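Per your request, structure below.
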């Protein structure tokens, strides 16, 4: 029978799938001999069973009872026993950290009797006991019974007035408990459950259910966390930070998660419990000040943090509580960090001898690198600095100030850039944070909800800008110097420095982009990037090429590390003032007129290719012959019809209209385009091949590769190929001739197609459209969000290559193509070529290179290195 419950002494950090991150790491710390309150973990497998079947698995209750008994005997107390109660917390904890997204209930086991026992046990500290009890009802009411948390908040606020929660007396807290119980009765029609075991049972199920809470679902979608993992549940003996001034609770990082620098980073709050620190109910003190309050605990904590960093060989974040001078560890995990910190920490750990450079490459991601390539604010010009807060998550964001999540979503949907301004954020602000360019809060530190979530999303965030008075109701904030910013006013937020500016600030390139452009590494961060990129380049098996179709992009691509061009589109060579020539081509009355139009186009194409060959300086250039339907180059059908109908059209307009009508297609994506054009319009492809050959002759060392789009059958390719080979031979030019694999039929008959192709390049945009039967422009806007919600896919297949379907076709084509032609060159040139997870797929599928837009090249290089070093594609986060 399955084992559903693990004592902390039974688990370890590698059991995250089963025990969740929190449970696995609590077990790890327990086994390291650190002071962790005893407890046990119910597995995520039990949760999955519960979510699927609607009931807990057989045997779970008995197993929990057994572990509870062991916990009780270890603690020498019984759960909720009247005179000396054991209290426990019931804590969610999934494989991937989802800060604040799911539920935790503290102080389970309190009721009208045991509250007195707790007070007695604490040396007659009635205040503490009633404070713990009111917290239980509040958390239980909100998370387990689904009561609006505001109701409890309001009751607390009106009792407190302008005082702090710590100023409330035992009597007042006792009254608050009565008020809370009244709220529970009113809202649920039932009494707050007094039976401790019933409390425990209900809390466990509530944690299971919280996996599917809307905000958790939204967070998973945003972070690309699979929807079917479920959460584990941790039952932990309570320790108390709310016993008085010699107690407290805190959070800490072993390094600065913003910059990566070593030092002491954390927040501490005296006489407090649980979420008080992150919720910003009172102002926390910096962790350093704990030294003055409680030197023993402080020293022990620092020792433990060092031990944890050396053990995990990475930045850790921790949650701890001090109960009357005794330190307890309540959580640790490898901490989230900003992109810059990730690169710095990785190389620092190498220098400390804790990890190898190989590992350092796997510790950073392409997404983080992409973030470092974001522009930043210019230091030139006028700067209307309003205030400075904490630099919680880097980047330069400009937008209209908005003061609620709803408004942020609304304006963003209307295409506006917005900055979400809040006193502090909570999990209900998630939608607004996703919609916003940046987030600004007036309260909370680097461990506040806003900071943690923004960092996770890579969203610019300044938090704890305490000089700001934020009024959500009046939709405005005031800053020192009498400045008022209302909804819709533009502000600029610098998450790298913490500065907030009035108005729109100009932005400039990032130092990392300047480095890729060729300047010497300017600072520590860029040196870290440089080291990691060099190592990734040395490690990767995949080549990286660029999608570029002009000399400027080609040159940038080379500077960014491209080893060739994987996709040079030729369609832009038919635009602008060349449209006239395309019109002539389409309207040609006979073969002579058509040839004349082609002859006029040829030298123009040739000069385009010369520019690109020169920029690529001997590197291979894959040129795709014209792909879009010709009517895309002609005037618009409706406009022309109107012109003709109005009677102010020329003869030529009328002929054009006839041609446009003739060429009109119901579904151009599946119409006369690609190789079909080459076969139907005599001389078109020949003209392009001749232009390529002539250009190649003009540029010494040029390495053209000619690529035929939209092939479905080898017969199509053979016809085109024959003509091209003849032209190349005439010119004495050597060029590979290959095809795109972008129709399912080409993939399925790759063994035949390879007879006529020296290379394949997977056009995964079209291949995805045709494999799913999606027309991208139509489906993305109309129902993709619904599909994502339903979990049909976790991420759009246009963003990340769909391994199961499209990926299967790729693998078939790779295998069968190579069977026919062992030296077949294989690449990918869809947008997936710059997507981290898709790069890992390409590595595994055995492709020779990926091709992507110039700005994604560093990302692809890094991910190709990571793919080679980890051999594990499952986690590119
Ligand atoms: P989250 O995943 O949202 O961080 P946790 O399960 O870590 O939720 O619980 C939130 C906080 O509650 C913890 O940081 C800790 O301060 C407090 N807490 C949880 N369990 C206990 C316990 N057994 N004793 C004391 N405090 C606890
Ligand atoms: Mg929480
Ligand atoms: Mg926690």
């Amino acid at each position: 029978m399955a084992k559903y419950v693990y004592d902390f002494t039974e688990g370890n950090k590698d059991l995250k799938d089963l025990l969740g991150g929190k449970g696995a790491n609590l077990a790890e710390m327990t086994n390291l001999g650190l002071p962790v309150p005893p407890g046990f973990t119910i597995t995520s497998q039990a949760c999955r069973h519960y979510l699927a079947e609607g009931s807990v698995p057989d045997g779970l209750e008995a197993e929990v009872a057994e572990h509870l008994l062991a916990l009780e005997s270890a603690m020498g107390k019984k759960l909720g026993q009247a005179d000396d109660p054991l209290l426990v917390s019931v804590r969610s904890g999934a494989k991937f950290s989802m800060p604040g997204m799911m539920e935790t209930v503290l102080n389970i086991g309190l009721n009208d009797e045991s509250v007195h026992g707790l007070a007695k046990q604490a040396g007659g500290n009635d205040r503490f006991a009633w404070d713990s009890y009111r917290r239980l009802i509040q958390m239980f009411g909100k998370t387990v019974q689904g009561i609006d948390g505001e109701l409890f908040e309001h009751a607390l606020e009106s009792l407190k007035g302008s005082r702090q929660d710590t100023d409330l007396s035992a009597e007042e807290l006792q009254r608050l408990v009565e008020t809370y119980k009244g709220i529970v009765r009113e809202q649920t029609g039932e009494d707050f459950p007094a039976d401790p075991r019933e409390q425990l049972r209900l809390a466990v199920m509530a944690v299971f259910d919280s996996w599917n809470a809307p905000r958790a679902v939204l967070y998973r979608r945003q972070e690309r966390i699979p929807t079917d993992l479920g959460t584990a549940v941790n039952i932990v003996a309570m320790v108390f930070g709310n016993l008085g001034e010699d107690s407290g609770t805190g959070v800490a990082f072993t390094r600065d998660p913003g910059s990566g620098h070593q030092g002491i980073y954390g927040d501490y709050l005296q006489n407090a419990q649980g979420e008080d620190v992150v919720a910003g109910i009172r102002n926390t003190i910096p962790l350093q000040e704990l030294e003055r309050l409680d030197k023993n605990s402080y020293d022990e904590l620092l020792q433990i943090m060092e031990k944890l960093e050396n053990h995990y060989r990475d930045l850790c974040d921790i949650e701890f509580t001090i109960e009357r001078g005794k330190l307890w560890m309540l959580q640790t995990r490898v901490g989230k960090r900003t992109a810059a910190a990730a690169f710095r920490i990785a190389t620092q750990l190498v220098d400390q001898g804790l990890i190898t450079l190989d590992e350092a490459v796997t510790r950073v991601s392409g997404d983080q690198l992409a973030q470092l390539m974001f522009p930043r604010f210019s230091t030139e010009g006028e700067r209307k600095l309003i205030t400075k807060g904490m630099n919680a998550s880097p980047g330069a964001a400009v937008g209209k100030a908005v003061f609620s999540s709803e408004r942020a979503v609304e304006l963003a949907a209307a295409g506006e850039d917005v900055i979400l301004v809040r006193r502090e954020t909570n999990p209900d602000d998630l939608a607004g944070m996703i919609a916003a360019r940046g987030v600004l809060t007036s309260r909370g530190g680097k461990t506040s909800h806003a900071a943690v979530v923004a960092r996770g999303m890579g969203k610019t965030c300044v938090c704890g800008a305490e000089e700001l008075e934020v009024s959500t109701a009046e939709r405005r904030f005031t800053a020192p110097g009498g400045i008022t910013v209302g909804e819709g006013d533009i502000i600029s937020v610098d998450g790298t420095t913490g500065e907030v500016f009035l108005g729109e600030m100009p932005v400039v390139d990032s130092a990392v982009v300047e480095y890729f452009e060729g300047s010497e590494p300017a600072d520590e961060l860029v040196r870290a990037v440089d080291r990691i990129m060099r190592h990734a380049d040395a490690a990767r098996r995949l080549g990286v090429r660029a999608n570029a179709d002009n000399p400027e992009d080609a040159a940038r691509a080379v500077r960014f590390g491209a080893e060739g061009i994987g996709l040079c589109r030729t369609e832009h060579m038919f635009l602008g003032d060349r449209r006239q020539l395309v019109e002539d081509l389409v309207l040609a009355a006979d073969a002579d007129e058509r040839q004349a139009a082609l002859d006029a186009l040829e030298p123009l194409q040739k000069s385009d290719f010369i520019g690109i060959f020169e920029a690529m300086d001997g590197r291979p250039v894959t040129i795709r012959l014209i792909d879009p339907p010709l009517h895309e180059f002609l005037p618009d059908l409706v406009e022309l019809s109107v012109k003709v109908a109005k009677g102010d059209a020329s003869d030529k307009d009328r002929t054009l209209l006839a041609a446009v009508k003739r060429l009109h297609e119901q579904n151009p994506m599946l119409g006369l385009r690609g190789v079909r054009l080459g076969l139907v319009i005599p001389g078109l492809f020949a003209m392009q091949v001749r232009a390529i050959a002539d250009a190649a002759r003009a540029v010494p060392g040029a390495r053209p590769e000619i690529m035929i789009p939209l092939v479905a059958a080898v017969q199509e390719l053979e016809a085109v190929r024959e003509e091209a080979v003849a032209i190349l031979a005439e010119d004495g030019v050597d060029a590979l001739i290959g095809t795109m694999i972008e129709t399912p039929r080409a993939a399925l008959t790759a063994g035949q197609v390879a007879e006529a192709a020296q290379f394949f390049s997977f056009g995964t945009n079209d291949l995805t459209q045709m494999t799913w039967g999606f027309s991208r422009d139509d489906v993305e806007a109309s129902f993709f969000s619904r599909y994502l919600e339903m979990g049909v896919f976790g991420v759009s297949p246009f963003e990340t290559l769909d391994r199961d379907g499209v990926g299967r076709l790729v693998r078939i084509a790779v295998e069968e193509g190579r069977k026919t032609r062992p030296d077949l060159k294989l690449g990918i040139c869809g947008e997936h070529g710059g997507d981290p997870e898709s790069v890992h797929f390409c590595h595994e599928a055995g492709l020779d290179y990926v091709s992507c837009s110039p700005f994604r090249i560093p990302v692809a290089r890094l991910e190709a290195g990571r793919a080679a070093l980890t051999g594990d594609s499952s986690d590119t986060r």
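The radius of gyration is 32 Å.

Regards,
D.
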